[in-house]
Amino acid sequence: MLSALLLIPILGSLVLLPMSGESPASVTRMKKTALVVSMINFILSLVLWGEFDSSSVQYQFVQEFNSLSFCHLNLGIDGISLYFVLLTTLITPICILSNWDNIKFGMKYFLIAFLLMETLLIAVFVVLDLMLFYIFFESVLIPMFLVVGIWGGSVTRIRASFLLFLYTLAGSLFMLLAIMVIYYNIGSTDFAALSLSEMTLDGQKILWLAFFLSFAVKTPLFPFHMWLPRAHAEAPLAGSILLAGLFLKLRTYGYIRILIGFMPDATSYFSPLVQTIAVVTLIYSSLATMRQVDFKALVAYSSISHMAIVVLGLFSNTIVGIEGAIALSIAHGVISPAMFTLVGGVLYDRFHTRVIRYYRGLTVYMPVFAIVFFLTTAFNMAVPLSLNWIGEALSLAGIFQKTPIIGVLGASSIVLSACYSIFLFNRLAFGAYSQYLSFTNDITRREFMVMLPLLLVAVIFGILPNVIFSDLHVAVSDLIYATP
């Protein structure tokens, strides 16, 4: 079943490849084909979720492809990777729908890029080999580099795409060196072999720093964060959704699977350092968010602060903190794309400016937009009855159990996120209608249907969080208490 999840988007790309023509009918046919392929993958992932056994500590749906001497592709999922796979298959059709009308050239290659990225992202979460994890982890950069550079929003898109590529690739060189050292000493990069091997604390420290530097650039943590706001601001809407919804989750998964799973002693040793960096990142990015005049950059900086809370939860070394961090990652994976859809899609498509000062009083002509924007803003602030609140509360509770001072400093995000979120909503929605804006229509049916599943996920799992935690608990408990 996992191999089918990987192959269906590739087959969809092969179907799209021979299609030609720039006529509206041809382009519509391409978009419908890509959307159907992504929906089939989403339905298949729901079947996978339904058959998942939450009581097992073993990898499930394991498939091995060892026919080639140089390629040992082993696939499997556990409770930790399950929800990241579901998030990937949910976000991909939303990406296709979000840019349904506003890509004016190269639609076929735009759609193929997103289908390939879906395969690569799923592969990161299901491969059971460290070298293959690295290969797929880095391969995602290539289509995203092309998406930002070709279909970006302004003339500075080339600079943004190179910042995205070079920052993240430079950090990953250290991860590659660490993987080579592991292979030289252990003789394998298979997850099962790594979990049974023993490394000295000094050896773990060196390898841990190499992996952490790579993940810190991609999270991003201060001071390696400069590529993210630029990439978000210049990327097309679908690219921003994928960056916020899925790219940042690769780092969460890497922290859990590699640093916490395979190097627990070094993780415990360096936890105070990581917690300090995460708190600095949280406060700095929150203050920087308040200063933004571009609303896509504002949402991008807010993503940095939310991911800093995720890092605090992960490195609390508690079940509560790690489960909360995973829940917050999933919540951020749906709410941040919803924010980008509203500001970078609905508003930018109508008024073609991202400068906040040009906007005011949108409730006059866009009341439905104002209601949806209010709900999304409230969820982004982590109000009760949302999954964001569950994840943030548990992440902060986990870190507070271990280090109360860090917990108090991390809790400042509650006030800081409310400051920039309420400012943005108040500026856009209330007051007299701006003299710089022309008359416009409310959100369309397509835009509303893009938003609806994202909000439903945040609300349903916010009211019923045990649906997620029942699948996570066994895997997270085994991660903490059963590692050698």
Automatic annotation (TrEMBL):
GO cellular component, one term: mitochondrial membrane
Bilayer topology term: Multi-pass membrane protein
UniProt KW Oxidoreductase keyword: yes
Keywords, alphabetical: Electron transport, Membrane, Mitochondrion, NAD, Oxidoreductase, Respiratory chain, Signal, Transmembrane, Transmembrane helix, Transport, Ubiquinone
Statement: the UniProt record of this protein carries the keyword Transferase: no
EC number: 7.1.1.2
Subcellular location: Membrane; Mitochondrion membrane
GO MF annotation terms: NADH dehydrogenase (ubiquinone) activity; NADH dehydrogenase activity; ubiquinone binding
Residues of the NADH:quinone oxidoreductase/Mrp antiporter transmembrane domain: 129-411
Signal peptide residues on this chain, from the entry's feature table: 1-21
Top class in the EC scheme: translocase
InterPro entries named among the record's database cross-references: NADH_Q_OxRdtase_chainM/4, NADH_UbQ_OxRdtase, ND/Mrp_TM
GO biological process: ATP synthesis coupled electron transport; electron transport coupled proton transport
Domain of life: Eukaryota
Ranges annotated as spanning the membrane: 80-97, 109-128, 134-152, 164-186, 206-228, 240-263, 269-287, 299-320, 326-348, 364-385, 405-428, 448-469
Reaction catalysis annotation: a ubiquinone + NADH + 5 H(+)(in) = a ubiquinol + NAD(+) + 4 H(+)(out)
NCBIfam families, A to Z: NDH_I_M (TIGR01972)
PANTHER family tied to this protein: NADH-UBIQUINONE OXIDOREDUCTASE CHAIN 4
Membership in a protein family: Belongs to the complex I subunit 4 family.
Chain's role: Core subunit of the mitochondrial membrane respiratory chain NADH dehydrogenase (Complex I) that is believed to belong to the minimal assembly required for catalysis. Complex I functions in the transfer of electrons from NADH to the respiratory chain. The immediate electron acceptor for the enzyme is believed to be ubiquinone.
Protein name stated in the entry: NADH-ubiquinone oxidoreductase chain 4
Organism: Tremella fuciformis
